[in-house]
C-alpha cells in the first residue's frame, strides 16, 4: 500500500533567499550585532576578575566570579539604590495605570464639554521635552516642599508620561465595539460598572503595554532623580551608576556589574509579559 504524496501548497517557494531578502537581512544582522555585542561584553565583564578583564576582554569569563556584583551591591550601595528605584517604579506604574485607564476611557468612550481642548493640551504636552521644563519643575517641587523625596520623582514621572499613555489607552478603548456599552446600559449597568467589569478586562493588553513602558521610563530615568534627589540614601540606580563611575572610573568590572543590576529587572519583565506586550502593540494600543 503506497502512502499518499504530500503536495506543497501552491504559491509557496522553498529554496534560497532572493536578492531582495539578502538586502534586508544583511543590514538587519549587522545592526543586531552592533546592538547586542556591547550588552554581551558588559555581561562578560561583570563576571570577570580584574586580571581576566585585562588579559581576555572579549572572551567569556572562565571561571565566572560574583565578586563584582557583591561589591557593587554592598560597597557601592546598590542595594539601597535598587530599593529606591523599585519603590519609584512600582508606584509610578500603579499611578499611571489608574490615570491612563480612567482618562483614556473618558476620552475614548464618553463625550463631555471641553474634550477637544483637553486633547489639544495633551498633544502640546507630547511636544515639550523634559529638559526644557526641568527648572519650572524644580521650582514647583520646592514650593510644595517635595524636593529630596521620592514623591517628587513619582509625581513628575506620572505627570510627564501621562499624555502619551492616555493617548495609548484612548486609542485602545475607542477601538472596542460600541455594542458592548449599549448592551450593558440596557441591562442597567452604571458607567463605572461598564468601565470596571467590561472595558478594563478587554483592555488588558493595553494596560500591560502601559505598565511595561512606564516601568522602563521610570526605572531608567536619570534626569529627574539627579535634579530632585540630593541625599545619598534616596538615589536611584542610574544616579548611583553615574556617581559610581566618578569614584571607580578604572574598575570596569564594578561598572558593568552595576549596569547588569540595572538591566536585569527590565529584561525579566519583558520576558514574562512579552506576549501581552506584543498583543497590545498589534491590537492597536499605539495607533492614533
Tell me about the biggest sheet? none
Task: Give the tally of β-strands.
Answer: 0
SSE topology string: HHHHHHHHHHHHHH
The CATH class of the largest domain is Mainly Alpha
Structure description:
This is sn-glycerol-3-phosphate transport system permease protein UgpE. Residues 82-273 form the ABC transmembrane type-1 domain. The chain contains 14 helices and no strands. It has 288 residues and is an all-alpha fold. The chain has two domains: 19-65, no CATH class; 80-282, MetI-like (MetI-like fold, Orthogonal Bundle). α3 (67-74) crosses α13. The protein is globular, with a radius of gyration of 25 Å.
Keywords for this entry:
transmembrane helix, MetI-like fold, single chain, 288 residues, mainly alpha, transmembrane, MetI-like, 14 helices
What's this, in brief?
With 288 residues, the chain is an all-alpha fold. It contains 14 helices and no strands. Helix 7 runs antiparallel to helix 10 and helix 10 crosses helix 14.
Topology, element by element:
Layout: H1 19-46, H2 50-55, H3 67-74, H4 78-109, H5 115-127, H6 134-143, H7 150-174, H8 178-186, H9 191-202, H10 204-219, H11 223-228, H12 237-247, H13 252-272, H14 274-282
Helix pairs in contact: 1-13, 3-13, 4-7, 4-10, 5-7, 7-10, 8-9, 10-13, 10-14, 12-13
Amino acid at each position: 500500500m503506497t502512502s499518499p504524496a504530500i503536495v506543497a501548497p501552491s504559491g509557496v517557494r522553498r529554496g534560497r533567499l532572493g536578492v531582495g531578502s539578502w538586502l534586508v537581512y544583511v543590514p538587519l544582522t549587522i545592526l543586531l550585532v552592533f546592538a547586542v555585542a556591547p550588552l554581551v561584553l558588559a555581561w562578560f565583564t561583570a563576571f570577570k576578575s580584574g586580571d581576566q578583564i585585562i588579559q581576555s576582554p572579549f572572551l567569556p569569563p572562565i571561571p565566572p566570579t560574583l565578586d563584582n556584583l557583591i561589591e557593587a551591591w554592598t560597597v557601592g550601595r546598590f542595594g539601597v539604590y535598587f530599593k529606591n528605584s523599585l519603590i519609584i517604579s512600582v508606584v509610578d506604574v500603579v499611578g499611571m495605570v489608574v490615570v491612563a485607564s480612567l482618562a483614556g476611557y473618558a476620552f475614548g468612550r464618553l463625550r463631555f464639554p471641553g474634550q477637544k481642548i483637553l486633547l489639544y493640551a495633551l498633544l502640546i504636552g507630547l511636544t515639550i521635552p523634559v529638559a526644557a521644563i526641568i527648572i519650572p519643575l524644580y521650582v514647583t517641587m520646592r514650593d510644595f516642599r517635595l524636593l529630596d523625596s521620592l514623591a517628587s520623582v513619582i509625581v513628575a514621572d506620572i505627570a510627564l508620561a501621562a499624555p502619551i499613555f492616555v493617548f495609548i489607552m484612548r486609542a485602545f478603548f475607542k477601538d472596542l465595539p460600541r455594542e458592548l456599552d449599549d448592551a450593558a446600559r440596557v441591562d442597567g449597568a452604571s458607567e463605572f460598572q461598564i468601565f470596571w467589569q467590561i472595558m478594563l478586562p478587554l483592555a488588558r493588553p493595553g494596560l500591560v503595554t502601559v505598565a511595561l513602558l512606564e516601568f522602563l521610563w521610570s526605572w531608567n530615568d536619570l534626569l529627574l532623580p539627579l535634579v530632585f534627589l540630593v541625599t545619598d540614601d534616596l538615589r536611584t540606580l542610574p544616579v548611583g551608576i553615574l556617581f559610581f563611575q566618578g569614584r571607580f572610573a578604572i574598575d570596569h568590572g564594578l561598572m558593568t556589574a552595576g549596569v547588569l543590576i540595572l538591566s536585569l529587572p527590565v529584561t525579566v519583565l519583558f520576558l514574562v509579559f512579552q506576549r501581552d506586550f506584543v498583543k497590545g502593540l498589534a491590537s492597536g494600543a499605539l495607533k492614533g
